[in-house]
Design brief:
This protein is mainly beta. It has strands spanning 12-18, 22-29, 35-41. Strands 1-2-3 form a three-stranded antiparallel sheet, with no helix packed on it. The chain is elongated. 0% of the residues are buried.
Length: 45
């Protein structure tokens, strides 16, 4: 990770990949290397 992301003021890091058919999520606590992944299906109809 970048050094500015090692700041203990952050409780978690969240990544979102926004796409047409689905959205991918990744959540990682600031004091662990474990990550949780999730998918949200997206339908514009």
């Amino acid at each position: 990770m970048n050094s500015h992301l090692n700041n203990t003021n952050y409780k978690a890091f969240v990544g979102i990949d926004w796409a047409n058919d689905k959205h991918d999520l990744c959540i990682q606590g600031s004091f662990t290397s474990n990550r949780e992944f999730s998918v949200i299906n997206h339908n514009v109809n």
